[in-house]
Each structure stands twice: as structure tokens, then as C-alpha cells.
């Protein structure tokens, strides 16, 4: 679109009146839509300035035309030396056919640019859709991996719990042969049940309560044991009095006539 405007500016060289610039927007990704909006705004302002300059030129007000030119130059890039020389040559020749060809070329180029821009926007939308689909695929894959990891852990804990239960049952039946009492065997069975139920406890909504109660009981038992040990350390039990039984028996033993000795008279 800018090239078409440049062709018109080669004759009129104009621009729109000064407009208070918009405030700087916050930082945002420079997508095709944002870039297209900015280019459309610049092109619209330049086109409006061209129209105002043409009206000022018709009214015979060259000062306004020159003022609009200064503003137009701020919106447009610097011309290439070859294009500038070609425009000056066309203006010097003042050939109507050359101007008509330049306008036709500008209209064609503007149409080509619009078509390319539409294709680029369509391609961007397609790419964005592909990126969204790929992101969703990755998220679904992550969910599948997490589910597989949980299932593997469930199988391991379930198998370990079943093995502990089987071992505890065997110890209940035959543990007395190897010196294992029924209480120890029952604790092995209980540990197996708890191990097998651990995955469901973790996934349950009551898991925080179970952990909280367990930790509270463990902390209470630890504090109780520390309190008992501290009390025993501060107030040790009195040591028992040791009596020499042998010496006391020898002193209190009466003379026994049957021991082979007789009293001295």
C-alpha cells in the first residue's frame, strides 16, 4: 500500500494534519495482527494527508501543501536513490502516459501486497492452530505418562503388600518353628495391608487427615518418651543399700555343739 501512495506523492507530495500521537501501549507480542493494525493506521493517515494536500493544492495554498509534506515524510521511509531519480525524471518529463503507467503499477502492486498479506495471515492462523494442537497433544501425553507412573507405583505397592500379607500368614502358621511369635507375624500382615492400601490412601481426599493424625501420634509418642527420659535423668531412683550378709551371719551365728567343737570351760 505504501508504494501506491509514494506514486501519488511524486506528484503532490503531501500528508495529513498533525494528530496527537497515541499513548505507548504496554509491551505485547508483535504478532501479524498487531503489525497489520499498525501498518493500516500509518497507511490510512498518509492517504488522508494526500487527500488534504490535493485539496490545498487545488485551492492554491502551497504553504499547507508544504506543511503536510513535512508530516508525511515522518511516516514514510527514506526513498531509494534510484526510485528518487526516476520520480524526478518523470516529473521533469511531465508525460501523462508515464503518470498513468505509474499509477497502474502502484495499484497492481498494492493488490499483490494485499493478497500476500491475506495469505500470511491465513498461514499464521494455521500455524497458531497447529501450535495449539501440539501443545494439547503434549499436555495429553504428560497426563498419560503421569497416569502410567501412578499405575506402576500402584502395582508395585500392591504386589509388595500382597507379599507381606502372604509372609505374615505363613509366619502365623509356622512361625513358631523359627522362633517368630504370633504378634510379630500379625504385625507383618498389618504392614502388608497398610502397604497395599497406601495408593488409595494417597489418592483419597482424607489423605491430609491421615498424615496429620499419624504425625500427631508420632510426635506425641516422641514427646512422651523424651519427657519420661528427662524425668528419670533429673530424679534418679535411690541406690539400694548393700549389706554384707556373710559377715553379719558370722557374728550372729551361735555355737553349735554339733559342729565338732565344744565350749571352753
What does this 3D model show about the protein?
The chain has 265 residues and is mostly helical. Helix content is 75%, strand content 0%. The chain has 8 helices and no strands. The termini are far apart. Mean pLDDT is 75; it is low at 1-29 and 257-265.
Compressed to H and E, one letter per element, the order equals HHHHHHHH
Q: What value does the average pLDDT take?
A: 75
Helix/strand class = mainly alpha
- The helix content, as a percent range, equals over 70%
* E-strand count: 0
Distance between the termini: 154 Å
Largest sheet: none
- What shape does the CA trace take? elongated
Number of helical elements: 8
**Low-pLDDT residue spans:** 1-29, 257-265
Q: Classify the beta-strand content into a percent band.
A: under 5%
- Please tell me how large the radius of gyration is: 51 Å
Tally of discrete structural domains: 2
Describe the structure concisely for a colleague.
The chain is mostly helical. It has two domains: 2-18 and 30-141, no CATH class; 143-236. It contains eight helices and no strands.
Features:
265 residues; mainly alpha; 2 domains; 8 helices; 75% helix; 0% strand; elongated; disordered C terminus
Fold blueprint:
Layout: H1 2-9, H2 32-58, H3 62-75, H4 81-93, H5 96-174, H6 182-203, H7 207-234, H8 245-252
Helix pairs in contact: 1-2, 1-5, 2-3, 5-6
